[in-house]
Amino acid sequence: MQTVQAIRPDREVMSRQRLPYFIGLSGQTVGALGLSMHIVVIPPGAKAEPHRHIGYETGIFVLEGRVLTRWGENLENEVVSEAGDFLFVPPGIAHQAVNLSATEAARAVIARNDPAEQDKVEPFVPAGAGSASRR
Questions:
Q1: Contact call for residues 125 and 133 (beta carbons, < 8 A)
Q2: pLDDT per residue over 101-113, tens digit each?
Q3: Single pTM value for the model
Q4: How far is 7 from 5, CA to CA, in rounded Å?
Q5: At 52, phi and psi to the nearest 5?
Q6: What pLDDT sits at residue 128?
Q7: Which of these, 128, 125, 111, 133, lies nearest to 60 by C-alpha position?
């Protein structure tokens, strides 16, 4: 039987992107069939590992902070998002989020049109770069 459920994330988990997540809605937590929704925290001065999401779209709403998102096959494109901004990441686009503050954490709500929490996150090494030369 389907039911309305409230979830309050109670613990931090480390994501495949190497950022702290607070798991909210997903197939695992509420039996969602086509949606997952979480809170991500980017610590001061931290950045995600470059990665792609395979087969699903990602919507991001920045709650606090300023985040630089690098994207593309060489992470050659950049966009800055700040509190109140939405960011859309199409399926398969390589990207990396960077907190622009050295003193304040950035926080965002992440929504995906897939109920899995991390199953389809794939690490990414930019073209022509080895793991030691990542940005």
A1: no
A2: 999 999 999 999 9
A3: 0.83
A4: 7
A5: -130, 155
A6: 63
A7: 111
